[in-house]
Amino acid sequence: MADTKRLNLAQKLTDQLIIYIPKKGEVVTDQELIQAPQQIATTSERTPEQASTGTSANASSTSDTAKIDLNQADSTQLQTLNGIGPKKAEQIIAYRDEQGKFKQIEDLQKVGGIGPKTFEQLQSQICVN
């Protein structure tokens, strides 16, 4: 049975948005409920187990208090970032292993597939220590 209470029925929709309606009791992040076309490739690659580890809390409220350290994060932690799925998380880790620690958050744009738009979405959620 569908859990329609999680949907914002007043939200304006735009062309090519993907709307996911979870089953009752299914744990899905708010970002997975409505996705823009550029997010589809990364989040659709997640397995149900990975999706169920997400929290139902709004990511913007948690991202203000707890940033992900690009130099310390494992794949699971990286996947909590908007638009980062298993493949992108592994690319970030591979880049870090090959090139050394990130010196500044802008270095994330050197990872294949992470351009200015993706970086703009992530910069408030990440840090380097």
Question: What keywords describe this structure?
Answer:
129 residues; mainly alpha; two-stranded antiparallel ribbon; two-stranded parallel sheet; 4 strands
Specify the biggest β-sheet: 2 strands, antiparallel
The helix-strand sequence is EHEHHHEHHHE
**What radius of gyration results from the CA coordinates?**
15 Å
SS-derived structural category: mainly alpha
In whole angstroms, how far apart are the ends?
Answer: 44 Å
Mean pLDDT: 77
Low-confidence stretches: 39-64
Structure, described:
- With 129 residues, the chain is mainly alpha-helical.
- It is built from seven helices and four strands; from the N terminus they run βαβαααβαααβ.
- The chain has helices at residues 30-33, 37-43, 48-52, 59-63, 75-78, 86-99, 116-122; strands spanning 18-19, 34-35, 68-69, 126-127.
- It has a two-stranded antiparallel ribbon with strand order 1-2. The protein has a two-stranded parallel sheet with strand order 3-4.
- The longest helix has 14 residues, at 86-99.
- The chain is elongated and about 45 Å long.
- The termini are far apart.
- The relative contact order is 0.14.
- Residues 39-64 have low confidence and may be disordered.
